[in-house]
Amino acid sequence: MGNFDAFEIKMTAAGMGDAAIRAFRRNYEALLRNETGLIPEETISPAQGLPSFEDISNAEADESLLSQAVVIKLNGGLGTGMGLQGPKSLLSVREGVNFLDLMARQILDLRKTSGTNVRLLLMNSFNTSEGTLAHLTHYQSQGLSEASEVELMQNQIPKIDAATFAPAEWPADPGLEWCPPGHGDLYPALVGSGWLDRLLAEGVKYAFVSNSDNLGAILDPAILTYFAKSGSPFLMEVTRRTAADRKGGHLAVRKSDGRLLLREVAQCPDEDVDAFQDIERHQYFNTNSLWLRLDLLKEQLAADSGVLPLPMIRNNKTVDPRDKKSTPVVQLEVAMGAAIECFEGAAALDVPRSRFAPVKTTSDLLALRSDAYEVLEDGQVRLAAEREGVPPNIILSDDYKLVDQLDPLGVPGLIGCRSLKITGPVHFEEGVVIEGDVEIHNTTPERLIVRSGTYKDQTIGL
C-alpha cells in the first residue's frame, strides 16, 4: 500500500515544483508510518515569562530596517463558512473599503514614512488569485497590481484515497481531487516560486507573515527592530489565552531539548485535554503572525534537505465535501507556526490582543463595521479608545450566519455596548445605539424593525 510515484506524476503534470513534491512526500511517508503527531503533557513544560510588546515598544525603532522587510499575507481563503464565493479579503469593512484595501494602505503608508519600497506579497491560492489581482488594478500607479511583483502562489496537493492510499479520483469534478496543504506551505512555496532567492538578492532579510483576515496584524517597526537586534531566526507573536481560546493551540517548551513548540488540540492525547484547556497553565496561543529571517530560513532549509520537518496534521474528509457519501479521503496539512520547533534560538513575543483581530464570523464583521472600531487612513484598524481594549461580545442567531444575511440587519452604534444578542430577523433603523448588555428577540419569520433610539441593559421582545 502506498506508492508515491503516482502522486509525483500527478503533481508534476499539474505544474507543482520540486519543493512542493518533496514536502508532500515527507508528509505522505509520515502517514504511511501511521504517525500520530501526539504531544503528551508529560513531555512539555508551559511557556512562561516571555518578553512582552510593552517591554520593547518604548525602545527607539530603526526605520531604516523597513527597506529590508517584506509583508507576506496569507490570502488563500474564500470565506466559504460566511457564504462567500470569492476571496475573503474582498469583504467590505466600510463603504468602498475591504481587507485588501487596508493591506494596500498599510504598505503605501510604510513606504511613505520610510522612503523605501517596502514589499507586499500575497500568498494566493488557485481560488483567490484572479479575484485578488482584479481588485489590485486599482493600485496600478502605486506598483501593487502586477502578479510578478505581489503574488506568491500557494501549492495544491492531491487528496489521498483513504482505502487505497492512492491519489483520489473524482471524474465528475477533477478539481475536487486537490486540496490546499495548509499555511505551512509557505516555506516550500517561497522556495519553489523563486521568491526566497529573489528577495534575498534584493536585500530583503526580514519577513512579517500574517493572515489576511487578522486586521490587527500590521508591520510594527518596534517589533521589526527588536527582531533584527535579537538575531533570532524565527519569532512568533503570541497573546494571552482567554476562556474563549481554551480549544485553540498553545505554545509550550519541549523538555528533551528546551525548544519552543506549538501544540494543537489534534496533537493532544485524550487524557491530557484538561491540561491542554487550562489557560492558567498554558497561557499563550499563536496569533499566526510570524517574523522570519530569510537568510537563516535558507540555511535551515539546506540543513533539512530542502524541507522543514513540520508535524503532519491528518484530516479525514470526503472527496466532495458537500457529499458525505462520496469517497472517503485523507487530506494532509502542515501549519506554518509549527516551524518554531525547527529553529535553534526561535523566540516568542507576548503581544496585546489588539494585534489579533481576526474576522472569522459575521459577529466579528458586525462589530468591525460599527463605531466600536476605527479605520484609519493608514490602513490600521483599532478599537475605539473608549472600549479600553475590549471588543463588544456579539452573539447572532443562525439567521445571520452568511454575509448576505447580515446586510439587511444594518449597523447599530456599538461603542458603548458590552454584549448584544440577536435572535430572529430584525433590522436596525438609522440611529440605533446599543449600550451595556442588550438582547433582541423576534420569534416570527417576518423581519421586524428596531426603531431609532438608545437601548441600554434591556431585553427587547419584538
TrEMBL record:
Substrate binds at residue 183. Keywords: Nucleotidyltransferase, Transferase. The keyword RNA-binding does not apply. Gene3D superfamilies: Hexapeptide repeat proteins, Spore Coat Polysaccharide Biosynthesis Protein SpsA, Chain A. It comes from the Bacteria. UTP binds at residues 88, 154, 182, 213, 360. GO terms for biological process: UDP-alpha-D-glucose metabolic process. Coiled coil: none annotated. GO terms for molecular function: UTP:glucose-1-phosphate uridylyltransferase activity. The keyword Transcription does not apply. InterPro entries: Nucleotide-diphossugar_trans, UDPGP_fam, UDPGP_trans. Belongs to the UDPGP type 1 family. This is UTP--glucose-1-phosphate uridylyltransferase.
